[in-house]
Amino acid sequence: MKRFIAGIEKLDIFFISISGVVLAFMMAVTLADIILRLFGKPIVGSVEIITFSGAVVVGFAIPYTSWKRAHVYVDFLTEKLSPNAKRIMELFTKSAGILLFLFIGYNFIIYGLDLKRTGEVSPSFKLPFYPIPFGLAVASFLESLTLFIDLQKVFKGGENE
Asked: For the purposes of burial, counting CB atoms within 10 Å of the CB of 80, is it exposed (0-12), middle (13-18) or buried (19 or more)?
């Protein structure tokens, strides 16, 4: 199990690294587009580049954010619960999260297959749309595995990091 957990953590780190590189790329494209617009030469297709990149940045950042528990965590309700009730609540929410991200990943695959079948491409660069939903599907399944590891920690009674 320790090798599995270490493998998921490495995948989470890999995905957040991709997310960070793509975010830096987005910032560079935006800056270049703004500067070039001053000279009347905007980057053609900059909006579609930013749109594709934004989907990757957000989707690929979710698993690692969950791993590090860096997401927004509203605990005003759970503060008032007993330790046992907190554990039950956490088991329920982690299980629901696993099912939700499995469902999301499955639907991203269906959507990606549909985009591939229809051959839909972006207007400016004629880039196919289908790789984005497939990448987001992988990120969603990785998030399910990350939540599963969190769920294992709850079952064992250990605190999450």
From this structure: exposed
